[in-house]
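Fold in tokens:
===
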Amino acid sequence: MGKRSKQRGRAEASGLSTAEIKRTTGVSPNSTGRWERRQVAGESLEPGHPPGPPHQITLEQEPALREQVAAHRDATLAEHCAWWAQTYTDVSVPTMSRTFRRLGITLKKDHDRH
């Protein structure tokens, strides 16, 4: 049983109003109403997939990207994209930037390098 199902069940069992549910659990009345409609319709209360296409650099590839960044600390995003394309797929600089941000990777430059 998922988190939503448990919260919905507790709310029903306790007889709380929607406003009381929001105050005690932090779940908005819109969400509880949506969950109730889904439950009545026999649908799952589990969260769906996020919108948009899947990540171009997958979860399985993330360790390899971290190794690449560790090996080339002073490289630019464009250089990382070029190295990535040699082994995996071509990705754009913005895609690489979003992936770095998602993984918490920063590109701190060595100021002594010229």
